[in-house]
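For reproducibility, we list the full input for the N~2~-(3-carboxypropanoyl)-L-arginine complex.
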Amino acid sequence: MSEAVREVNFDGLVGPTHNYAGLAHGNVASMRHGGLTANPREAALQGLDKMKSLMEAGYAQGVLPPQQRPDLGALRDLGFTGDDANVLARAAEEAPQLLRAVCSASSMWTANAATVTPSADAPDGRVHFTAANLQSSFHRYLEPRTTARVLAAMFHDSARFAHHPVLPATPAFSDEGAANHTRLSGAHGEPGVHLFVYGRQAFGGQHGPTRYPARQTLEASQAIARQHGLSDAQTVFAQQNPDAIDAGVFHNDVIAVGNGPVLLYHDMAFRDEDATLDALRARMSTPLIPVRVPSEAVSLEEAVSTYLFNSQLLSNPDGSMTLVVPGECQENETVWRTIQDLLLAGYNPISEVLVKDVKQSMRNGGGPACLRLRVALSSAERQALGGRVLLDEAVHGDLTAWVERHYRDRLAPEDLADPQLAQESLTALDELTQLLGIGAVYPFQLG
Ligand code: SUG
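The corresponding predicted structure, in tokenized form, follows.
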């Protein structure tokens, strides 16, 4: 059975309102690029191209739909009344920051959609999901309700899949999903150890960052481990280095990535590096392969600007691994040299690098790893998936044509109040649910 387990990367489709609004405090790319004109069509096509490359290289690739934006319901909840055009016009006039938030296509970063425990690790033998509350920012707090509906529609067989309540959306349980969760194991079907990295402890604990917010709490990570039935022997909770958060590492996946027994990380990733590795080693049934990149090789600043650690690390059938990096890594001489050194080093299985251009997403602080949610699934679990959500040539072709039919190639901040954009987005998403066969998951379809 473990032979048949494969990791499926579910990438978020970039939504039609992709834009640069400078919404994410502590995410330096988002802060730097706020106000630029975006190209939603290019963004979605870059995402689809990454998915296609991985599919063609033999990896199992899935897709998660975007969300309905602008979220007019959220604006109405905040007191804006009238018809849709009125609501948008009033928001643009009186609270442009709210309009920008309800237009964000941030659900594309599906590493933040949920935390997932594969069936090999869960006591009841099911795959467990908790959609992340994303309460750290208003624009992302709008995501979990629909995320939970989408996950429930896709993973609907309750004999195989378990869905847990989103954690209370309050600072003590601040949860950003799989971006702060790494599963280490032998092959994907073997039992794993779960590394939860948190930025701060709500009740007690040591000091957190001072400049930028810590988005994940220990309490949230512990609650998820409890929900999923994970024991002490299966979990390690490690604090992120607060200095790294203050340098722009707003999630652990900006400074570390794990796959199988490999943990690729920067020396500034953890508050206590040795204790973290020791705790992993004590629990893992297969030897941990730490791949440490020291600050002397790649500075924290370079790690943040190139997103070296926001790579995807993927297992190949022969035991080797491929690193999928954003184009920015190739453009930086030091980082590119470091990657070449990693490929040549004999002690780790990373043997190949694949460079993908996801610049539209990168300008908002989202690299290849942010764009995907990893779900290890047995062949029976893959067969139980609802909808047409696993990528093949036909699905890729349909999605590409769908993007080309519906997406604009230019979206500036002042376009967000355009009622036509809201209409286009609605039409596109309605068609998408049919294309993906996931049923009515959007608020406008639920009536
Ligand atoms: O939450 N950016 C996202 C990027 C998320 C990246 N995800 C991971 N590292 N897993 C965020 O900071 C910016 C939107 C804007 O500014 O328009 C934004 O939300």
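The chain has a mean pLDDT of 97. Residues 52 and 255 are 26 Å apart (CA to CA). Both points were considered when choosing residues for closer inspection.
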